[in-house]
Predict the 3D structure of the following.
Amino acid sequence: MDPRYDIPRRATAGGSGGSANSSPALGAQSRRRKMPPRPADFKLQIIIIGSRGVGKTSLMERFTDDTFCEACKSTVGVDFKIKTVELRGKKIRLQIWDTAGQERFNSITSAYYRGAKGIVLVYDITKQETFEDLPKWMKMIDKYASEEAELLLVGNKLDCETDRIISRQQGERFASRISGMRFCEASAKDNFNVDEIFLKLVDDILSKMPLEVPNRELSNSVLSLQPEPEVPPELPPPRMRCC
Amino acid sequence: MDNNQEPEEATDRSELLSGDGKNSKSVMCQRCGSKVLSPGIATFAEKELFLPSMRKKSGLSATESSVDGDTLTDHWLVGDMFDFENVGFTNDVGRIKYLICADCEIGPIGWHCLDDKSTYYIALKRVTHA
């Protein structure tokens, strides 16, 4: 186990602390920044799981084309991404792990699940078996993930409506049987609902947070409601991925 | 590394640097405009780093030794991966992780060595500033 990609407990670099204002310095001559850049209010780890070929990786991407990325992806592959979203006046950094390439249920180690505040479980609406796999994924979630982790079930490939095999109702029904699990359908290809997926998930995560601290949600004077989320002790292991 | 820079480049750089040696502008993806760094987050650093080409044909590979690319010296340096607004990390290539655009995945735009958890470089020439 290599702990190097855990969410660090605290930034060791300069530039953290201070409050709002991220406007650019007005000139190169300014001797000193009066307003330090605004740090992120929260850091959240999100994992994307699901059977092979359901489109997990494409959910992480807003779009792709065929310049470098193809070469990069096919030979090296993307390990994880840092993405920033703003919601409810908060700036949230997401560390998003896509588990593509490790679709066998047991190959994704517990460390991935343990640190996750949000889990996106994906199936393909045109492939029966990816839907039938869901209970096995749920077993892994039950076993390893924190009980507080927000769950979102995503029926992907909405752009292939004509090949649909799993109805929307089936997806809804599955999600409704699991307490707190949200459901939506998406098309990474058309970018339909993809941004919303992450915002929804983050919104759910944030809405739970005020319970852990005095509820000052409506007071904008409090920039940071809570110290950073606790850190998983271990880190996802290096990925073995064929090229 | 105190190489004398071309006058023109020096001018460009002073436009990008604030008085405290930080980036005065946002650092963005050249292709899709995704924001990589907010102003005032990164410090300017000179270090010779080899980054594989951003063009299609030269894929990076852990084994291939003759990778097409550039040795770049001007970088933005941050000490924590959470200093980035948006960025992607490739899988390991030896002890290196290359940084790419989080949205369109163009890259490499930067470099991170697994042996030093507190340095993350973004090459000035591989991004735009606004």
